[in-house]
Amino acid sequence: MKVELLDIINCIALFQLAVFISFLFLRSAKRKSNRILAGFLSVQILLIINYEFFRYYHEIYVFCPHLFYIGTPFFFLAGPTFYFYVKSITYSNFLLSKRHLLHALPFLFAALLFTATFYIHSAETKRALLDNRIFLSQSFSLYFNIAVHIHILMYNLGSLFILKNYRERIKQEYSSIQSIYLSWLSVVLYGFLIAWCTSILNFLSRSFALNIHVDLEVVNFLAFFIFFNFIFFKALVQPTIFLGVEEESRQKAPYLSKSVEEQYLNKLTRYMENEKPYLNPNITLFDLSKKVSIPHRSLSEIINNTIGQNYYDFINSYRVKESLHLLSDATTRSKTILEILYEVGFNTKSSFNQAFKKHTGTTPTEYKKQCIMTD
Question: In angstroms, rounded to a whole number, what is the distance separating the alpha carbons of residues 370 and 175?
Fold first, then answer.
């Protein structure tokens, strides 16, 4: 029995996965996102073990052929559990319900198929099936792997779509989104996609005997190993990443008559210009709604439909306007860009530069130089 690099990588991964799953259940099991993540990582343990049994085919064949294929149906749970984890992160009120069991149908079908054709047989019968390739033909293996890879890809793309919607949603409610933008989740999702690509490349190489001078199996498992470790690192260093944002209510905003709409719009405009609430870097739509005494849904409708902006851009437009005044005024021009961006309500230089260029077509530094040259 020869232990190779791939076995070492998988053993380390199994140990890390087991420790982290224990941590999720023992230290923070109350968070539903942690429980779902533990489920996803448990599936990965089964898949790695399933692979290792075939790595030592002859030993398992002789001593316990019942261990073959025990984790194979769980390929169809990797995508759904990861997808639900992303939903639980982006929607704090997400709950698993009976209708979500529909996502387990491919897994149940695969489990029943393997049970009827392999699991229920005796050890001797299983050896005979494996010897004669009666149970798992080459064509069946090919189509099964294609189905698995397509299944995982669809759920990964679905997760990316959820993240995209989440980022659009928070711009309707928050004026500062850096801390809740979930940039780390983008890295996780694209990391999972890259690991999937190495898996599909490894599958194509084995199925069609491609002449690739790289050990794609090692690359494949190393990619997933790095993917797992990034999750572990972020979860341990930043435990708050498991907090989500409340999903928007699906209740429609009340219909506003033209006169009420104009009244609210004038009220909002006066308040923004006179009181400058945008100078508060963390002001939310709910906060502004209370300050101007306009119902939350009505305020959202006015900003989105009447003004034609989302809340994030609406607030930033006032911040940029304020910064233009400070940059062009001779009495405040001595202030640095960093001082000005904090003064007008921005939290980071990157968000300030991005918003400034979006609303003016130039950067703060370039605008300041232009103001100096025109004096």
Answer: 28
- Say if residue 95 is exposed, middle or buried (CB neighbours under 10 Å; 0-12, 13-18, 19+): exposed
| SS3 label, residue 172 | coil
pLDDT surpasses 80 at 355? yes
Backbone dihedral angles phi then psi of residue 249, each to the nearest 5 degrees: -65, 140
Q: How confident is the model at residue 180 (pLDDT cuts 50, 70, 90)?
A: low
Length of the chain: 375
CB 323 within 8 A of CB 356: yes
> Would you state the structure tokens that stand for residue 216, as one six-digit string?
């794609």
3 state SS of 245: coil
**CA 254 → CA 3, 64, 105, 295, distances in Å?**
67, 66, 40, 9
Local structure of residue 100 (DSSP, 8 states): G
Q: Where are the alpha helices (DSSP H) in 115-248?
A: 123-132, 138-170, 183-208, 216-237
Whether the per-residue pLDDT at 7 is higher than 80: the answer is yes
d(CA 87, CA 139): 36
CATH number, span 258-374: 1.10.10.60
Same fold, 5-242 and 258-374: no
Q: Please check whether the domain covering 5-242 is classified as CATH 1.20.1070.
A: yes
Q: CA-CA distance, 174 to 184, in Å (whole number)?
A: 19
Closest by CA position to 182, among listed 163, 208, 205: 163
- CA dist 179 and 341 (Å) reads 17
**Residue 142 and residue 130: Cα distance in Å, rounded?**
16
Compute the distance between CA of residue 192 and CA of residue 240 in angstroms, rounded to an integer. Answer: 21
3-class secondary-structure state, position 291 = helix
**DSSP line for 359-371:** HHSS-HHHHHHHH
Q: How many whole angstroms separate alpha carbon 99 and alpha carbon 77? A: 15
Instruction: Give residue-wise pLDDT tens across range 15-54.
Output: 999 988 888 777 655 578 888 888 999 999 999 999 999 9
Q: Domain extents for the chain?
A: 5-242, 258-374
